[in-house]
Structure to design on (197 residues):
């Protein structure tokens, strides 16, 4: 950090005036921005991810996303054969969509990661693609194995994210919510598979 008395924006000569004019800042604002702004490079990897709490909408939108899982699993057990078959198909389709969505989270993290986390870019992008491939494969399988594969995909992705969180690459609040939702979703998928005659 440059001492304020030696900072180029604090001077009274023509170079300092030209810099201030080009920046469109008055001297006090320029000093506040240039002399007091903390360096982002001083933060350890994952620091920005751990500190902020989860947005409040995530705390109710996440659980709301379980409703299709629960409804389809319930219908798979209680409805007639035709409706139950459709419920298992709907359960698999929704499970595949959610598993693909969870992978996309890691593309977002990779694209917005600070320079200190550059080494994690390739694993993050890989983790963003693999869940989609698992989801696609599950839809090509018969209903029973497909639903089981989706459940394992959800739990496996959460397990890999746990390793990433221990390295400071994921927000801890996200991970807690992620496990709670994944266990409920996986239980619904396994319940759907168990409802097969």
């Amino acid at each position: 950090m440059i001492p304020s008395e030696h900072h180029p924006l604090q001077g009274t000569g023509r170079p300092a005036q030209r810099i201030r004019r080009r920046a469109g800042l008055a001297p006090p604002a320029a000093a506040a921005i240039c002399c007091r702004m903390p360096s982002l490079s001083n933060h350890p990897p994952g620091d920005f991810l751990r500190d902020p709490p989860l947005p409040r909408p995530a705390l109710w939108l996440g659980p709301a996303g379980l409703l299709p899982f629960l409804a389809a699993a319930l219908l798979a057990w209680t409805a007639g054969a035709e409706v139950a078959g459709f419920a298992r198909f709907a359960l698999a389709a929704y499970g595949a969509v959610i598993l693909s969505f969870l992978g996309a989270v890691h593309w977002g993290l990779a694209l917005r990661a600070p320079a200190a986390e550059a080494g994690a870019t390739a694993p993050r992008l890989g983790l963003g693609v693999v869940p989609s491939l698992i989801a696609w494969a599950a839809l090509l399988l018969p209903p029973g194995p497909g639903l089981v594969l989706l459940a394992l995909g959800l739990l496996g992705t959460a397990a890999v994210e746990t390793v990433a969180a221990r390295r400071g690459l994921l927000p801890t609040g996200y991970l807690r919510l992620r496990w709670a939702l994944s266990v409920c979703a996986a239980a619904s998928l396994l319940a759907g598979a168990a409802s097969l005659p």
Summary: The chain has two domains: 4-37, 47-194.
